[in-house]
Write a structure and sequence with these properties.
Elements: H1 2-37, E1 43-50, H2 56-74, H3 79-84, H4 86-100, E2 104-112, E3 116-125, E4 132-139, H5 144-153, H6 157-165, H7 177-191, E5 195-202, E6 206-215, E7 222-228, H8 241-249, H9 256-261, H10 263-275, H11 278-283, E8 285-292, E9 296-305, E10 308-318, E11 330-339, E12 344-353, E13 358-370, E14 373-380, E15 385-392, E16 398-405, E17 410-420, E18 423-429, E19 434-441
Parallel strand pairs: 1-3, 4-6, 7-9
Antiparallel strand pairs: 2-3, 5-6, 8-9, 10-11, 10-19, 11-12, 12-13, 13-14, 14-15, 15-16, 16-17, 17-18, 18-19
Length: about 450
């Protein structure tokens, strides 16, 4: 019986241990389930309103400040806790935000509990406010023409400051410094990325903003100017070279990217420096300028007349045996033409042969048959015979030319390649010979 009692006691102890373990397990499950189903604040959002105007950027900055306070205070807390101490938390947020806020007084704070908790803050603006804004923009170190273009690019910058400052309490301007700097930087990057802008704000009922604008590197450092004409002697342009050089030099020190962005406008401005001269208007000159923006900028100016053509050429031949058994002719030619319509005109050729001191004078008419194909007929006044020809410019530098001379019944064919603005090379063939001709332009 004694042994049976011992066994019975051990059994009871084991049953009690199992029951205790079961109770602990059930209690643990109940505890964890309670925590799992408790609702916690996961995120805090904020809205700020006022009795007056709050600029968008300033309002966003205030909302971020209140959100930081609310997140530190409420995130991770149970909604039951927040609801039970709602008044306490609202007063705490009001006091903390009111201490850092200048220019406004915190009138109310309302907490709307939820996993996405909302805090609504109402502000009361102080009485002294900005009623008007003047903005003065100063471009540092730029010529007048560049300043004008730049100010056109940023013409609505005044509105940026008005949107941020208008109606703001005077004491709250400090809240705007970071906001305005960021907005001005973004504005310049969008409208004039080649420049940076610094500003000072003189606070008052009428607030004055002074904006200083500075160029950014790289800038134009040198100008390489070339002036050419296809209808007038290049030497005739020398009288206006200094005028054009002065205009091009205005862009030294200007950001390369700005010149590139305003390339068409700058080319037009430089063209007008020639075209608006009285002598240019008289001769019907039209100038086209092409610039290649870089630190060492190239400027090419081409001035051509719509109604006159005056050129001087020098011809030298290689491998041509003339009637006088000379090895090639040397000739200097003056060409004078007057345009009547877009397709027709009259011309005169004055030729001088220095080897035998001989002159020739041709008078003629020309007509453009189809685009790039021009026919002419002319009469030699001194030798009294007719000549005719046709010229086809089939590429920018390539032209085909045919000429017939009635005096000796010679047909001459030539293929001309223009090496550059001052020299061309012709491959020539007639009834008797083949040779090369070099043509220089003056």
């Amino acid at each position: 019986m004694k042994g049976l009692g011992i066994v019975h006691c051990n059994l009871i102890q084991r049953i009690l241990k199992i029951l205790m373990l079961a109770m602990v397990f059930v209690a643990g499950i109940s505890f964890h389930c309670g925590v799992a189903y408790a609702q916690l604040v996961d995120e805090v959002k904020v809205t700020v309103t006022s009795d007056g105007h709050i600029p968008d950027g300033v309002c966003q900055r205030m909302e971020k400040s209140v959100q930081a306070i609310g997140a530190q205070l409420l995130e991770g807390k149970s909604l039951e806790n927040v609801q039970s101490q709602k008044t306490h938390y609202e007063e705490l947020i009001r006091q903390v935000f009111d201490k850092v806020l200048v220019g406004y007084t915190v009138r109310s704070v309302d907490i709307h509990p939820g996993e996405e908790l909302m805090i609504s803050v109402g502000l009361l603006g102080w009485n002294d406010k900005i009623n008007a804004i003047t903005v003065e923009k100063r471009v540092v170190g730029m010529p007048e023409v560049v300043e004008k273009l730049l100010l056109e690019d940023i013409s609505d910058m005044d509105q940026l400051f008005a949107d941020t400052l208008q109606g703001l309490p005077l004491a709250a301007v400090d809240w705007t410094n970071g906001v305005i700097k960021h907005r001005v930087k973004d504005y310049m990057n969008e409208r004039a990325p080649e420049f940076r802008a610094d500003f000072d704000v003189e606070v008052g009922a009428t607030t004055r903003v002074v904006v200083d604008i500075y160029p950014l590197l790289p800038v134009v450092r040198t100008i390489d100017l070339s002036m050419r004409s296809n209808t007038l002697p290049n030497a005739a342009l020398l009288t206006e070279r200094q005028n054009m050089q002065d205009g091009a030099d205005m862009f030294v020190g200007v950001p390369v990217a700005f010149v590139r962005r305003h390339k068409d406008t700058i080319e037009e401005l430089l063209s007008k420096r020639i075209d608006e001269l009285e002598v240019a208007k008289f001769w019907g000159i039209h100038t086209k300028v092409d610039i290649k923006p870089s630190e060492h900028m190239e400027v090419m100016s081409r001035s051509n007349s719509r109604n006159v053509y005056v050129r001087f050429e020098g011809w030298g031949e290689l491998g041509h045996r003339t009637k006088n058994k000379d090895n090639g002719e040397i000739m200097f030619r003056g060409i004078f033409a007057k345009q009547f319509t877009s397709r027709d005109g009259a011309f005169a050729l004055v030729d001088f042969y220095p080897k035998n001191t001989r002159w020739d004078l041709d008078l003629g008419l020309y007509r453009e048959i189809v685009p790039n194909v021009r026919a002419n007929v002319r009469y030699s006044v001194l030798d009294k015979y007719w000549k005719g020809g046709i010229e086809y410019n089939f590429a920018k530098r390539l032209a085909f030319r045919y000429e017939y001379r009635a005096q000796d019944h010679i047909s001459e064919f030539a293929l001309r390649y223009k090496l550059h603005d001052f020299l061309a090379l012709e491959a020539v063939m007639d009834n008797d010979d083949k040779w090369l001709r070099f043509i220089g332009y003056f």
